[in-house]
Write a structure and sequence with these properties.
- This protein has six helices and seven strands.
- By secondary structure, it is an alpha/beta fold.
- The protein has one domain: Rossmann fold (3-Layer(aba) Sandwich).
- The protein has a seven-stranded mixed sheet, with helices on both faces.
């Protein structure tokens, strides 16, 4: 399966994300997806936790965010960011694919800037399909891939169909 990036690279990536978030706040992107208070969200490949923290603020105390990453340093960074913001509704999961979540328990799955790195995207899609509610949304964004690459990589497995293309994200629903 996939391997985590080294900590130095992860720190440099975090600096890049900090600048990115100043230019385009993550809340603007997550509002496009339709995350609401009370939702259950999984941030697959959470990295530095920038999406997880904002999602945690949006879903509020009645919601939950599961921040999953293969890199233990990412998990630690996300946990610290959540604590710093006073968010107790973010739970981290260190895994390369398996979430451990119940079937059909998630409203929104985020797959941001991760699709291009996956060695086994079918396994990840199967896991996200399993945990998403019947009306759940898989939200995908990956600036390393072109539009047609994103759409084909998600739809070719046959688990999801494109529901909507937004300004920043692609929303897929279960088939």
């Amino acid at each position: 399966m996939d391997k985590p990036v080294v900590n130095l690279f992860f720190r440099l990536m975090g600096l890049h994300f900090w600048v990115r978030d100043l230019i385009l706040p993550r809340e603007k992107i997550l509002r496009e997806v339709g995350i609401q208070p009370g939702h259950i969200v999984v941030d697959f490949g959470c990295g530095t936790g920038s999406y997880s923290v904002v999602a945690g603020q949006i879903v509020g105390p009645s919601g939950k965010v599961y921040a999953l990453d293969i890199n233990p340093f990412a998990i630690e960074t996300t946990s610290k960011a959540a604590q710093k913001k006073g968010l107790s509704n973010i739970e981290t999961i260190c895994s390369d694919c398996t979430t451990g979540l119940k079937n059909e328990s998630v409203d929104v799955a985020l797959l941001y800037d991760t699709l291009h790195t996956l060695s086994e995207p079918q396994a990840v899609q199967q896991e996200l399909h399993r945990v998403l509610k019947p009306d759940g949304v898989l939200s995908v964004s990956d600036h390393h891939l072109k539009q047609e690459q994103i759409i084909s990589r998600i739809t070719e497995v046959g688990l999801f169909k494109l529901e909507e293309k937004g300004k920043y994200t692609y929303s897929f629903t279960k088939i």
